[in-house]
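Good morning,

Attaching, inline, the backbone tokens for the sequence recovery test we're adding to the shared suite. The designed sequence is right after.
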């Protein structure tokens, strides 16, 4: 029998925190003898049962809102930079909860020394901060300034050789903010009436929301507080170190890469196979396919076309990436829908069977009283106490949808009111599927639903009537609603597990969304004016802009616009994406001994370097190697502090973008530049200099 921790092992730790002892006594009996009286830790809510849960109004504090605003700006800046460079953005839910705790805890500790502390820092307030920051960051991720909105600009249109006035719109800060304010709040009201069904009735997992909740709960225990303190110290240290910005560049398979600490950090957060898939895609495309296709210039496509023309080599890069992404996305959409329907049927069938058993054998007891433990009863009590009534949520959705139907055609005349109405009739079904599927698998397929909207609405409106802009704008409408639905449910799951009130959570969501609608366009505009955003040869190529415009062109023009043999290649890559996903799921289901599915690459990640290049994949693989060797030396420390180091690397270098952009706007250049050359190239330059 494995010996468990004794009472005295816990006593001092919990007494210091002023929390109930957190354990119960158990007698172990072996062969009729009581061996020893030992202790088992109690459940999460039993640990916190003696702490008062503040009302929903007291969970929303000024310090929480100020912290949320500061962190929202930081994460919006980081996400904007990542989306304009590679488009690969890791989840910041955990980082938001961690930094929210560290900031407020430091403030509370400071004012407590002066005897000015009026309200202790609770896990509910921590959850409110995390929810607000994630909501604001979600706007930065889905606002379209690096994808569907940028695809409307002449910068991207010129790359596609289709600079038709009805299909090009000049970017303006005013209409971008107006569009985001119009469409971003609708999804919040749409899913509120379904929270009880999703979280309590169906008991959906929402893995990211659950993991964030457990992290927040652990922070408010003595050991968790010490660990979080170590986190914040590490982040500050790493963030200051990365001000020594590395700028050395090297050549790799037809592209360049720099040792960017941002992507080293992203690589430490992303799973190993994501980074391996990116490297594999870089080698496959820039190392093999593109050099071979470039040899067909003048045969498959005109050799006189510019390098960024979609009718030349760029067309193969963009449309093969689109084909693989669509294959991956459509497979997951179908998989999630089938799994959703099967799960719902199983849930209803199980409820009926359980109800029959209970009514037959235990007529005096209810199913809930038999099956629920202390934690579930307590969480359900607080979750249902402050529910937002349906008479607020449903009219809210109808009013905001009506407002959008009137406003969006003013911003985009190519979209008629009946187009927007159809989008809002489709949205509830897609939002439910995405929120339910996210609860089962942790996958949000908002971008995939948005790509489907591009194809449908662009072909419906037609090229001459502005179908490209109509498809891209409808993508924004659908993505905003569908992504908000899954993000809202993730955060409500976090709130359910930390006893945060649904009303304080909803307020935090609304506040965070409003912040995001202002911060994300302003930060994008900062980059847009300082750099050549959208230029494939520049520092911020915004790879998804040309891809989204390519999808819209495909919708209005059909496959006839593709260069020779591009359609055949696209079909093969589309089928390959389907087969890779199918094989992965078959191995997950039927092969559990060696878990071979862990080593199957991701089609979506393979496709990303097709257009963008392979420069960032090296950095991300370096991040994976750092975490791997760190784990081999000290696995526990790598698990505990790896996310903190990664967040410091990402935030530190990303925030360097602020002074860098200011210097660029001022027209100032670095006084010294370094470039590393091969030995042969260096000898040639020496010979030239000697001749001079």
């Amino acid at each position: 029998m494995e010996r468990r921790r004794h009472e005295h092992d816990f006593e001092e730790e919990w007494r210091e925190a002023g929390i109930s002892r957190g354990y119960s006594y158990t007698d172990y009996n072996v062969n009729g003898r009581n061996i020893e009286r030992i202790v088992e830790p109690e459940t999460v809510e039993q640990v916190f049962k003696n702490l008062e849960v503040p009302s929903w109004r007291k969970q929303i504090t000024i310090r929480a809102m100020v912290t949320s605003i500061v962190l929202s700006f930081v994460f919006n800046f980081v996400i904007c930079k990542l989306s304009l460079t590679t488009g690969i953005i890791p989840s910041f839910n955990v980082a938001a909860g961690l930094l929210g705790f560290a900031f407020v805890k430091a403030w509370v500790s400071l004012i407590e020394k002066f005897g000015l502390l009026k309200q202790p820092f609770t896990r509910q307030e921590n959850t409110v901060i995390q929810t607000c920051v994630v909501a604001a960051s979600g706007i930065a991720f889905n606002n379209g300034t690096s994808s569907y909105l940028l695809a409307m600009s002449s910068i991207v249109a010129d790359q596609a050789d289709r600079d038709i006035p009805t299909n090009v719109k000049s970017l303006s800060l005013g209409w971008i903010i107006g569009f985001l304010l119009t469409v971003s709040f609708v999804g919040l009201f749409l899913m509120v009436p379904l929270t009880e069904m999703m979280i309590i009735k169906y008991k959906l997992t929402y893995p990211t929301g659950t993991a964030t909740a457990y992290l927040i709960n652990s922070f408010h225990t003595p050991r968790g507080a010490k660990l979080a303190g170590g986190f914040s110290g590490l982040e500050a240290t790493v963030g200051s170190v990365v001000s020594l910005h590395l700028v050395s560049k090297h050549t790799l398979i037809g592209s360049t890469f720099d040792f960017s600490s941002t992507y080293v950090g992203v690589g430490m957060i992303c799973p190993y196979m994501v980074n391996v898939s990116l490297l594999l895609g870089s080698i496959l495309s820039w190392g093999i396919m593109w050099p071979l296709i470039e040899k067909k210039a003048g045969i498959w496509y005109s050799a006189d076309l510019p390098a960024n023309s979609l009718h030349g080599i760029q067309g193969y890069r963009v449309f093969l990436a689109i084909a693989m992404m669509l294959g991956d996305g459509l497979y997951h959409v179908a998989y999630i829908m089938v799994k959703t329907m099967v799960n719902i049927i199983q849930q209803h069938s199980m409820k009926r069977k359980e109800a029959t058993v209970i009514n037959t054998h235990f007529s005096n007891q209810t199913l809930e009283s038999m099956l629920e433990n202390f934690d579930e009863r307590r969480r359900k009590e607080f979750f249902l106490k402050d529910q937002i009534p349906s008479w607020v949520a449903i009219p809210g959705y109808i009013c905001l949808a009506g407002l959008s139907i009137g406003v969006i055609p003013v911003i985009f005349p190519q979209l008629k009111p009946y187009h927007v109405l159809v989008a809002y009739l489709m949205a509830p079904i897609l939002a439910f599927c995405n929120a339910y599927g996210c609860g089962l698998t942790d996958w949000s397929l908002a971008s995939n639903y948005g790509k489907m909207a591009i194809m449908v609405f662009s072909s419906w409106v037609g090229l001459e009537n502005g179908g490209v802009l109509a498809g891209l704008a409808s993508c924004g409408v659908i993505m905003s609603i569908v992504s908000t639905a899954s993000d809202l449910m993730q955060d409500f799951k976090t709130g359910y597990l930390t006893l945060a009130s649904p009303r304080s959570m909803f307020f935090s969501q609304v506040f965070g969304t409003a912040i995001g609608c202002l911060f994300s366009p302003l930060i994008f505009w900062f980059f847009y004016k300082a750099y050549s955003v959208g230029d494939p040869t520049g520092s911020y190529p915004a790879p998804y802009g040309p891809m989204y415009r390519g999808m819209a062109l495909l919708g209005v023009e059909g496959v006839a616009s593709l260069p020779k043999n591009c359609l055949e290649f696209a079909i093969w890559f589309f089928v390959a994406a389907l087969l890779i996903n199918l094989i992965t799921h078959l191995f997950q289901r039927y092969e559990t001994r060696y878990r071979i599915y862990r080593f199957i690459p991701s089609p979506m990640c393979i496709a990303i370097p097709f257009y963008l290049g392979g420069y960032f994949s090296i950095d991300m693989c370096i991040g994976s190697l750092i975490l791997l060797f760190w784990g081999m030396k000290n696995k526990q420390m790598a698990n505990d502090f790896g996310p903190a180091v990664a967040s410091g690397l990402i935030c530190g270098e990303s925030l360097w973008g602020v002074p860098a952009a200011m210097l660029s706007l001022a027209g100032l250049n670095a006084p010294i530049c370094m470039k590393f050359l091969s030995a042969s190239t260096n000898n040639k330059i020496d010979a030239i200099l000697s001749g001079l």
